[in-house]
Design a protein that fits this description.
Layout: E1 9-13, H1 31-40, E2 45-47, H2 58-66, E3 71-79, H3 88-104, E4 109-114, H4 133-154, E5 157-160, H5 171-180, E6 186-191, H6 192-197, H7 202-208, E7 213-218, E8 220-221, H8 223-232, H9 236-242, E9 245-246, H10 255-263, E10 269-273, H11 285-298
Parallel strand pairs: 1-2, 1-10, 2-3, 3-4, 4-5, 5-6, 6-7, 7-10
Antiparallel strand pairs: 8-9
Helix pairs in contact: 3-4, 7-10
């Protein structure tokens, strides 16, 4: 196997792989340590993570990333667009700030995560698990509008991230979402771990909806822990704390076939390692990041 087999795949990592879920949390490593360690692990690309964790002044962030040989691949936002036009102004206020920093850092993608239907920590049900037909229409139309506005105002491409405990999660719901949205405005961020968590097959998705795959998140799930999580109906936060997302190659899906399928699409794609680890001991991420980068090189990436 040679590196050229994965010549179209650009590997990076994210604050999530260092246990970072919030802009500020005493259990998270300081942002300078994250930048030092992600560079030391052999990655060239990073995501912004939760807005405000890394410096939001682009001049400061550019200086800090460039001196470590890093570049930004994407920013991330959470949205509740299924709630209809009434949430647009609030959504845009949040999204536009993240989009401005993302574009100023030279990135071209914004990862969009739908809002959770239950509380990520307590498991409190916040709204119905299934969307109505009207809510699906709101979600599709709102996401298309977001894609159009971000393209026209910021030159960004949105990639929607199917995520556990959201309404865009299972194979059925992901297909419904893709079929309802304009390919010119909306692409997908396929997170291999979340899709497996929700019962999906990443290789099948790439082969079926290849033109819609605009970005990858690489992670794996521990099948035994996942079975217990499902049996206990745990929310995603406690499931992560239990270790449901694990270091590759210990879990599923196998990442080499995913990367092979992505390479066959014939387009350049970011593949960002994002091993959910919140909370974690501060010395835990670096060795895992080094081993994961070495493993991905062994896959040709």
């Amino acid at each position: 196997m040679t590196l050229s087999r994965m010549s179209r795949i650009r590997i990076g990592s994210a604050p999530d792989s260092w246990g970072v879920w919030f802009p500020d949390d005493p259990r998270q490593v300081p942002w300078r340590r994250f930048l030092d360690e992600v560079s030391e692990s052999g990655y060239d690309w990073i995501e912004l993570g939760p807005y405000g964790y890394l410096p939001t002044d682009p001049d400061v962030l550019r200086a800090e990333t460039e001196r470590r040989g890093l570049a930004v691949s994407a920013g991330t936002v959470f949205t509740g667009l299924h709630r209809g036009p009434a949430v647009w102004d609030e959504t845009w206020e949040h999204v536009s700030g993240v989009a401005g920093l993302t574009r100023a850092m030279g990135a071209e993608h914004l990862v969009v995560i739908p809002s959770f239907w239950r509380d990520d920590k307590t498991g409190e049900v916040l709204e119905d698990r299934e969307l109505t037909a009207e809510q699906w229409r709101h979600l599709a139309e709102g996401t298309e509008r977001l894609g159009r506005e971000l393209r026209d105002r910021h030159g960004l491409r949105i990639v929607v991230h199917p995520h556990a405990d959201t309404h865009v999660d299972t194979e059925e719901n992901v297909a419904r979402f893709l079929d309802a949205t304009d390919p010119d405005l909306v692409s997908l961020c396929l997170d291999t771990g979340h899709y497996a968590y929700c019962g999906g097959d990443s290789v099948k998705l790439i082969e079926t909806y290849g033109a819609r795959i605009g970005y990858l998140h690489l992670k794996q799930v521990d099948p035994k822990i996942l079975a217990a999580v499902r049996a206990e109906e745990l929310p995603f936060g406690p499931a992560v704390a239990r270790g449901v997302m694990c270091e590759p190659p210990a879990g599923t899906p196998a990442l080499e076939p995913v990367l092979d399928a992505a390479q066959r699409l014939g387009v350049e794609l970011f593949a960002i390692v994002e091993q959910d680890m919140y909370p974690c001991a501060p010395d835990e991420p670096l060795p895992i990041a080094r081993r994961t980068r070495r493993y991905l090189r062994g896959c040709g990436a």
